[in-house]
Automatic annotation (TrEMBL):
Keywords: FAD, Fatty acid metabolism, Flavoprotein, Lipid metabolism, Oxidoreductase, Peroxisome, Signal. Coiled coil: none annotated. Its cofactor is FAD. SUPFAM superfamilies: Acyl-CoA dehydrogenase C-terminal domain-like (SSF47203), Acyl-CoA dehydrogenase NM domain-like (SSF56645). Pfam families: ACOX (PF01756), ACOX_C_alpha1 (PF22924), Acyl-CoA_ox_N (PF14749). Residues 158-319 form the Acyl-CoA oxidase C-alpha1 domain. Belongs to the acyl-CoA oxidase family. This is Acyl-coenzyme A oxidase. InterPro entries: ACOX_C_alpha1 (IPR055060), Acyl-CoA_ox_N (IPR029320), Acyl-CoA_Oxase/DH_mid-dom_sf (IPR046373), Acyl-CoA_oxidase (IPR012258), Acyl-CoA_oxidase_C (IPR002655), AcylCo_DH-like_C (IPR036250), AcylCoA_DH/ox_N_sf (IPR037069), AcylCoA_DH/oxidase_NM_dom_sf (IPR009100). It comes from the Eukaryota.
Length: 536
């Protein structure tokens, strides 16, 4: 009924909404949110209130001037009992005048690192009354007399966040395709230095260091697209089960969505930054779009669950799985490898060998965390303090788990799809899978040395494999980014346009600057000249 009331209006843009959960004082710890929604059975309304400054909603995108409604997450009070955080759909502005409604204080939070077009806002309530059916009652309800009906699963309140985290993995694949396209096309156009005196300056794309900076971004875009598709299919399956009341697979989805969101956003931000730096000074131009793209990707490390916090959520699941598995209980498919108690096999420099190696690293790290926590607790430390003292290792275990999931998914999905592809295309995609896998083996060689039987000669061989792959991929690099088929209007970049007219575009953009409107800027007469004449 509520969906019938609100969904059509949202779909045809009669109402423009945002998700107002984060407050000035709390973004991570949701149970600490301060906005209250107190039920008044006499009028069958909820009274929304922001009791403190830190209770003000802060950050929601579009809240400052665009949204006229929002989903507000507030502590629900009824009959004197606080039932915890629940979502409410609330009109905050008049639908004709767009004026904030009485009792609503709303505004813009100010300049940010990027997303300058999203008017992120603040929102405070001063005993603002909304009808009872503002409470989104799919999971929990409040009856007319104020009786609270518990949700069959309290965690469903957090469902929106799982959905967005699942989508973010695919978002990162897209952002990396943009960054790789801009930087690789520019690297094909840019000629610089003279390693061979009697030859023209080479394309910077022929420097192996440039390939090392850029090809992993290209491979990661495909890895995250494929992993994002797998995660979405998992989400749809779990959601279908939830609709029929079965929540058994929700914890696994939550755990894998947390670590994949954290790892893909961190990788995307650092790889987009590498794309920017690989374009030298021109990569620092706003007109290249790379600084804006960095601002967008680095924000994703914070929003929808700060990365460390999410990695610790997955670590919580891995530790629980280890304890469950140790009692012989079955584990979820993504965590089942934790119980592989077989002896560490002879290292193999193959994709399967590396993937198995990352699983060993993750299992070994989880086991180390459990041992450290157990040891601290036995010495009288509280579990919470033992957890905190082990948390650096717990984050590392989560990352290793996430990498094992991405490596295995990327390899399996490309192998499955390859059968339907032309041999040359299949070969190039396999090269990207191979590059991605060997790149991360070399990045985490310390962990592999600790938890697997990899030897020095294996590492030397992997390094050579990696460099051979850079050489093999080089001839197809521009074709691979062209295959993303990103229009110039979408790339919005002087460096990444399809026609490669980089220098003309840089100059065209520069001349659009208002500072080039006249040969002598007014600042000369107002400040420089008086200063030079000692009059300032
Ligand atoms: C293009 C730009 C788009 C930008 C969009 C950005 C929009 C936003 O940022 S919206 C705001 C996003 N905010 C967040 O993500 C907040 C993150 N914080 C949280 O999710 C929670 O506070 C959290 C999980 C860290 C801790 O919550 P808390 O209630 O203390 O949970 P915790 O005690 O750790 O766990 C309780 C149980 O709930 C489970 N759980 C927690 N979250 C979830 C979830 N989302 N789904 C399912 N289960 C969950 C835990 O696994 C745990 O289960 P168990 O007890 O069986 O182990
Ligand atoms: C661009 C952008 C858009 C956003 N859009 C929205 C939106 O539309 N709607 C909305 O509701 N919110 C939005 N947010 C807010 C966002 O969800 C929060 O900023 C995010 O959840 C992090 O919470 P916080 O800012 O309180 O950081 P904090 O949680 O205060 O984090 C600060 C530091 O504390 C650490 N920390 C916190 N808790 C723990 C812990 N338990 N263990 C270890 N370390 C911990 C974190 O790791 C971090 O290093 C947006 C944010 C940004 C940047």
């Amino acid at each position: 009924e509520q969906q019938e009331k609100w969904v059509p209006r949202a779909v045809n843009m009669e109402i423009i909404g945002t998700y107002a959960q984060t407050e000035l004082g709390h973004g991570t710890f949701l149970r600490g949110l301060e906005t209250t929604a107190t039920y008044d059975p006499n009028t069958e309304e909820f009274v929304l209130n922001s009791p403190t400054l830190t209770a003000y909603k802060w950050w929601p995108g579009g809240l400052a001037h665009t949204a006229n409604h929002c989903v507000v997450v507030a502590q629900l009070h009824s009959k004197g009992v606080n039932h915890g955080v629940h979502p409410f759909i609330v009109q905050i502005r008049d639908e004709d005048t767009h004026m904030p409604l009485p009792g609503v204080k709303v505004g813009e939070i100010g300049p940010k690192l990027s997303f300058s077009t999203a008017n992120n806002g603040f929102l405070g309530f001063d005993n603002f009354r909304v009808p009872r059916d503002s409470m989104l009652m799919k999971n929990a309800q409040v009856l007319k007399d104020g009786t609270y009906v518990k949700s069959r699963l309290s965690k469903l309140t957090y469902g929106t966040m799982v959905f967005i985290r699942v989508m973010i993995v695919t978002d990162m694949a897209y952002y990396l395709s943009v960054g790789a396209t801009i930087a690789i096309r520019y690297s094909a156009v840019r000629h610089q230095s003279k390693p061979k005196e009697n030859e023209p300056e080479p394309q910077i794309l022929d420097y192996v260091t440039q390939q090392h900076k850029l090809f992993i971004a290209l491979a990661s875009s495909h890895a995250f697209r494929v992993t994002g598709q797998w995660l979405w299919t998992t989400f749809v399956r779990v959601n279908k089960a939830l609709t029929s009341g079965n929540a058994d697979t929700l914890p696994e989805l939550h755990a894998v969505a947390c670590c994949l969101k954290a790892v893909t956003t961190r990788d995307a931000a650092s790889m987009v930054e590498a794309c920017r730096m690989s374009c030298g000074g021109h990569g620092y131009m706003t007109s290249s779009y790379l600084p804006i793209l960095y601002g967008i990707t680095t924000a994703a490390c914070t929003y929808e669950g700060e990365n460390t916090v999410l990695l610790l959520q997955t670590a919580r699941s891995l530790v629980k799985a280890w304890q469950k598995g140790s009692k012989g209980k079955p584990l979820s498919p993504t965590e089942a490898y934790l119980m592989d108690k077989s002896p560490v096999p002879k290292w193999e420099n193959t994709l399967d060998g590396i993937i198995a190696g990352f699983r060993r690293v993750s299992a070994g790290k989880v086991q180390d965390c459990v041992s450290k926590i157990d040891k601290l607790v036995k010495m009288g430390t509280s579990y919470e303090d033992a957890w905190n003292q082990t948390s650096v290792r717990l984050v590392a275990a989560s990352e290793a788990h996430s990498r094992a999931v991405i490596l295995a998914t990327f390899r399996a999905e490309v192998s499955r799809a390859a059968a339907a592809l032309s041999p040359p295309l299949a070969r190039v995609l396999h090269q990207l899978v191979h590059l991605y896998t060997v790149y991360w083996a070399l990045e985490r060689v310390g962990d592999l040395l600790l938890y697997t039987s990899i030897a020095e000669r294996d590492v030397q061989e992997l390094q050579q494999q990696y460099e051979d792959l850079l050489q093999k991929i080089r001839p197809n690099t521009v074709g691979l980014v062209d295959a993303f088929d990103l229009r110039d209007e979408i790339l919005n970049s002087t460096l990444g346009a399809y026609d490669g007219r980089v220098y003309e575009r840089l100059m065209e953009e520069a001349l659009k600057s208002p500072l080039n409107a006249e040969p002598v800027n007014q600042s000369f007469h107002k400040y420089l000249k008086p200063f030079m004449q000692g009059k300032l």
